[in-house]
Amino acid sequence: MNESATKDDVVLIAKRWKNKRGSLIMALHGLQNRFGYVPRDAAMELAEQMDVPLARIYEVITFYNYFKLKSPGKHVVSVCMGTACYLKGAPKLLKHASESLNISPGETSADGEFHLQMVRCVGCCGLAPVVTENETLLAKVTVDSLEAHLCKCKNKEKEKA
Question: What is the mean pLDDT of residues 103-117?
């Protein structure tokens, strides 16, 4: 791994979960929470630290669609497709986000700025339809309000450049 801090993070995660039965998923959640995805070198280090075959780790990572093998974009845009959001227009929002960002759900933009995903439910059904962008919750979203937010994110990135 590139940084000792990164290895130290994996060691701490592994140490927390190593001797607990059925804890591999929790350790992988720890990795994904730390890095935003499960980097290959971190998975290899976790395998070594927890004395688990790397193949077993990849069985779990590839079985559950929650885990990501590639780094998501800086702005992770999640469109809730739970029942309330779906009925209040989430499919139209997902289609618009996909067209606006020029990526399909599950993809990251070529510049690494945006990742678009569908999620089952964010637990805010009374605010439907809901979209999140990283830690920001957008409630009662319309196509116009979603576009305004995406433009704001795009403009922030242009200002940084």
Answer: 93
Picking from 124, 131, 123, the residue whose alpha carbon sits closest to that of residue 90 is 131
Q: Is residue 91 part of a domain?
A: yes
Is the Cα torsion angle 12, 14, 20, 25 positive or negative in sign?
Answer: positive
> Are 43 and 89 found together in one domain?
no
Number of domains observed in the structure of the chain: 2
What pLDDT is stored for residue 123 in this prediction? 92
pTM: 0.72
H helix or E strand, kind and range, residue 136: strand 136-138
Domain span at 124: 75-160
- The CA radius of gyration of the chain, in Å to the nearest whole number, is 18
